[in-house]
Write the structure tokens for this entry.
Amino acid sequence: MTDLEYNYVKHQIRQLTGIDLNAYKTPQMQRRLQAYLLRIGYPNWPKFFRTLRANPAELNKLKDYLTINVSSFFRDPEKYKYLQTCVLPELLRYHPVLRVWSAGCSRGQEVYSLAMLLAENAGPGLEHYLLATDIDHSALEWAKAGGPYTADDVAYVPVHLRLRYLEARHNEYWVSTKLRGMVTFRQHNLLADPVAGKFDLIICRNVVIYFQADAKDKLYHGFHNALKPGGVLFVGGTEIVPKAGDIGLEAMNVSFYRRKNPSILANKPKASTSA
């Protein structure tokens, strides 16, 4: 694909979907686009874009392909174990009701995984606020419906949580009404739309890795600003926040970063030394 052709494709996709491909790594995105055009059997881009303007279903398929909706419940189980045993207890110590944002939530697997953990730890009468956002409307509709999810999607869900929060129907799995009621879903463009409010925990996993360096920098600064002091950012297993300290984040563990908050850290309860 020539630079001229790619500029044309980027312009058309921006007009049709609102997705700015300038934020994505160029060689990788060019390969994905060429593969997609070949797969669906169109001879050229102009004909393809004419079809998209007349066919919303095909447009949604393209958006789904570009936004790379690949996830599963409790993806990287060891990271969720750390979240459950270390991160959430510390956050709940200071804020009994948590505000959580799942950014780039895809079809809801990540946010529903967290919802299960929070439902298990909610105090009487307490309701945590979970916001899940994505640019892809079709993925959000899937998430709002609570499924269907495949056996592979739920393979890492602990058995007791699967029995409590998932319903099996004809070899498919659906999220329970209770769990769906915990989450607010909203369409949102990470690179263009503002974020309302402050959060104790932000989950954005395996999304930022597809972006150019300047887009990553913008997103990480945005996440820092959207976190409360002492709040935590949970990223993908292979993702590292570059120069986290310069942004105001500090590494807690692999995939976890905390917004610096000297006042809270200095006032952590001390272990008792009494016999």
